[in-house]
Write a structure and sequence with these properties.
Layout: H1 2-18, H2 49-60, E1 67-74, E2 77-83, E3 93-94, H3 98-112, H4 143-147, H5 168-174, H6 178-183, H7 199-202, H8 205-213, H9 217-226, E4 234-236, E5 253-255, H10 257-268, E6 272-273, E7 276-277, H11 281-287, E8 292-293, E9 298-300, E10 305-307, E11 311-312, E12 315-316, E13 320-324, E14 328-333, E15 338-344, H12 359-368
Antiparallel strand pairs: 1-2, 1-15, 3-5, 4-5, 6-7, 8-9, 9-10, 10-13, 11-12, 13-14, 14-15
Helix pairs in contact: 3-8
């Protein structure tokens, strides 16, 4: 009797599981929210959703690891929005060095207001009370050099991790005050000649804005950027000097992926968001044009990257992007009217492989660009 009962129970359980279909992700058009984003279906803007669904399945199966969100906008409308690994559209996500590109936008606005004459002005003239740090050639450092990561300061942020004493970020994190630590670094090259990625220098944008506008960065960005872009929820990590980290230090800005993506759409539309001109077309062009080569196919502009890594019909596509640690990305393809955003958790200091941050390059090349039909 016991064996008969066991057999019947086993059959019942087997039938139960066999009758349940595996969970399959079904695409649905992003919801129309009160955040300023128009929405559309992929086919409405010349995209083949099958490629996007294939990519989605690879993310969900962890072929592409650590992805938290993927969003696409084409021809001005948000057409794809998916969240993974427990994240949702309501979560504020740290965007790390994508913050730098927001900071570049702020500098553009300060310039347009005439609070700073040009990017060619000496850095020492933009900071209050730090004149003694600008000697032995440092007086030649300009705002342009800060934005293009060519200040000449001795700085190495790419060796090891933030927990490694060979990394300049390790010492920045422990310095008090941090601004003084950055300004006190010796020069290793003539300003303007050599690229050195330097989050510490980017953090100087906060005191520059405060000194030259008379407003704190948080008030200034709310008035001039977040209010026009209809961004209402965000947070900002401070440096230990009590300035918001304009360089993305310890996460920098945190915001919803839909809001982070607005930065890319703003720049795609020549500085306009839903009919409001937030920044000039001229600054968009200037700040996203290659300033200095970093590798044979990647250059740095004014706190934006430009890359010649993508092709279509045998032609290299024009592209610029904002990149943050762990795989936070905003890609802009002007000729395709395409903006792509990712948030991710591939942090090297948490054990993620060094190349995990760049898996989005393959995702775009092998799936998203192939989805474009018109």
């Amino acid at each position: 009797m016991f064996l008969k009962t066991l057999l019947l129970t086993t059959i019942a359980i087997t039938l139960l599981f066999c009758s349940q279909e595996p969970e399959i992700y079904t695409y649905s058009k992003p919801p129309l929210l009160r955040d300023g984003w128009p929405v559309a279906a992929p086919e409405d803007v010349g995209l083949d959703a099958n490629y996007l669904l294939k990519l989605d399945s690879l993310i969900r199966s962890d072929h592409y690891t650590g992805i938290h969100s993927m969003l696409l906008a084409r021809k001005g409308s948000l057409v794809y929005e998916a969240y993974y690994n427990g994240y949702s559209r309501s979560d504020l996500h740290p965007i790390y060095s994508v913050t730098k590109s927001f900071s570049s936008l702020l500098i553009g606005i300060v310039l347009e207001e005439g609070k700073i004459d040009s990017v060619r002005v000496p850095l020492m003239s933009l900071l209050d009370g730090y004149e003694t740090y600008f000697d032995n050639g440092k007086e030649k450092i300009q705002l342009d050099h800060l934005l293009s990561m060519t200040t000449g300061y001795k700085w190495d942020e790419w060796t090891g991790t933030a927990f490694d004493s060979s990394n300049s970020f390790y010492h920045l994190d422990r310095a008090r005050p941090q601004i003084n630590y950055v300004l006190n670094r010796p020069l290793e090259s003539i300003p303007g000649e050599k690229f050195r990625y330097n989050t510490g220098a980017s953090n100087l944008i906060a005191p520059i804005i405060e000194h030259n506008t008379g407003e704190g960065v948080e008030d200034y960005i709310k008035t001039h950027v977040f209010d026009p872009l209809e961004i209402t929820q965000y947070s900002w990590q401070n440096m230990f000097d009590d300035f918001p980290s304009t360089g993305g230090y310890r996460g920098g800005l945190s915001m919803k992926p839909r809001d982070m993506m607005k930065l890319g759409q703003l720049y795609l539309d020549d500085g306009s968001w839903n009919g409001s001109q937030v920044i000039s077309k001229e600054w968009v062009s200037t700040s996203t044009s290659a300033s200095i080569a970093v590798t044979s196919n990647q250059s740095y502009a004014h706190h934006w990257w430009t890359r010649s890594l993508f092709e279509m019909d045998g032609e290299v596509l024009r592209e610029f992007d904002a990149l943050g640690s762990g795989g936070q990305w905003v890609f802009v393809f002007p000729d395709l009217e395409l903006v792509i955003a990712f948030t991710s958790g591939n942090y090297i200091w948490q054990g993620a492989p060094a190349n995990a941050t760049f898996q989005q390059i393959e995702m775009i090349r092998d799936y998203i660009l192939k989805a474009i039909k018109a």
